[in-house]
UniProtKB/TrEMBL annotation:
Its cofactor is FAD. GO terms for cellular component: cytoplasm. Residues 334-404 form the Reductase C-terminal domain. Transmembrane segments: none annotated. This is Pyridine nucleotide-disulfide oxidoreductase. Gene3D superfamilies: 3.30.390.30, FAD/NAD(P)-binding domain. Keywords: FAD, Flavoprotein, Oxidoreductase. It comes from Methylobacterium tardum. The gene is hcaD_2. The lineage of its organism: Bacteria, Pseudomonadati, Pseudomonadota, Alphaproteobacteria, Hyphomicrobiales.
Amino acid sequence: MPQMSERAVIVGAGLTALRGAEAMRAAGFSGPLTIVGDEPYRPYDRPPLSKHVLTGATPADATTLPGSLGLDADWLLGCPATGLDRQARAVRLADGRTLSYDRLLIATGTRARPWPNPHEGRLAGVFTLRGRDDAAALRQALAADPRRVLVIGGGFIGCEVASLCRQLGLAVTLVEPGPTPLARVLGRTVGAFIGAIHAGHGVDLRCGSEVEWLEDEHGRLVRAHLVDGTRIEADLAVVALGAVRNTEWLEGSGLSADPGGVDCDARGYAVDTDGTADPRIAAAGDVARFPHPLYDGRRVALEHWSQAVAQGIHAGRLLAGAVPEGPYAELPTFWSTQGDLVVKSAGLTEGADAVAITQGDPTSGRFVALYGREGRCIAAVSVDSARWLPAHAELVAARAPFPPRGGATDRPKEIEIFAPDFP
C-alpha cells in the first residue's frame, strides 16, 4: 500500500480524473493529491454540452459534476502539463513549475479535431464542440437564428448537433464522406436506417460528399465548397471530425504513447516503449489504450462516458494499492441522444462480419441490431429500444453464438443476416 508520505498527481481534470481521485481516497490513499487541468473549470459533465446546453435548457456553467467541491485535493486549473520526467518522477507544467509524484494517473482525455485549414477554422461562424466554452459559444450562435447550419461530419456528435438544429427549427445540412451517417461505427446497413430517420426529420443529408474549403466575407463564413463543385450557403458550421487524444506532453517520457493513446497493460498500468509496466503510473478514460479480454486482447481506446467512470475508478483503486486479481474487463457501453432518437450500444462493433435485426423493425424507427464476428456476438445497438438492450448485452458479455438461438418476444421469426458494410 502507498505510504501517507507519498504524493499522487492526476493530470486531467475531467470525469475520469474526478472518479479516479474519489476512488483513491475511498481505497485508503491519504497522502497529498494534486489534480492538474488545462481548463479553468472543476470537472463538468460533457454529454449535456451537445444537448441541453445547446438548446438553452441548461447553462454551460451548470454542468459541474457533484463531488469535486468536497474532494480533499489541491486543484491546479488552467495550467496544462507539458512534460513528464519519469526518472525524476516529476510532471512539468506550462507555467514552469514541476510537481513531484509517487503515483500518477494520466487522464488527459481528448480534444476536438480541428478543421484542417487553420485560417478557415478561425473564421467567425466556424465551431468545434468539445468543452464548456465551445458549447456556450455555439449556443449563442444558434440562438442568433442562422439561416443555415452546416455540420461537417456524420458521427455521433455531428448527428446530435444536426438533430438539435431541427429541434430549434433551424435549416441544417450534414455533409459526411461516408455512405451513411455513423457508417464507420455502425456500418452502412444500420447507418442507412438511422440516416433515413434523420432525413425524415428534415436534415439535409449529403452523404458521399466532402467539404473542400470554407469561404468567408470579411472574416465570416458565408458558404462551403464541396469536392464535387457543389456550394452550400451557410453562416454557421460545426466541425465534427472526431477527437484527438492528448498525448503530446508525454513525448520523451519513455512511455508507449502516440496519437492513438497511452498504452496500458491488462491491469491498467502505463507501459514503456519496451512493453514494461510502470507500477507508479496508470492511465484511464479516453486517452487510455488497453487490451480488452472480451475482444481477444485487442488494444482499444474508448471515448465513452461509462468507460470514463469505470476505468477512472479502477485506476484510482489500482494506484491506491487495491490491485485487482484479473484484467480490466468492463463491457463498453455508449448512448447518444439525437433529437427524439436514442441510440444505445453495448460492446464494440469493430471487426464485425455480420449484423442481424433481432428486435423491432427499422422501418418503424425502433429496433435492435446485433453484431457478430466469427460466429460470436460482439456488440448490440438499440435505436429507441433501450428496454431490449440489457438482454443483448448479456449475449455480448458471454460471447454467445451468433445469430442468437431460441425465441424472444417480438423477435422476428426468421432473422435475416446482413453484411455490416463498414466503409
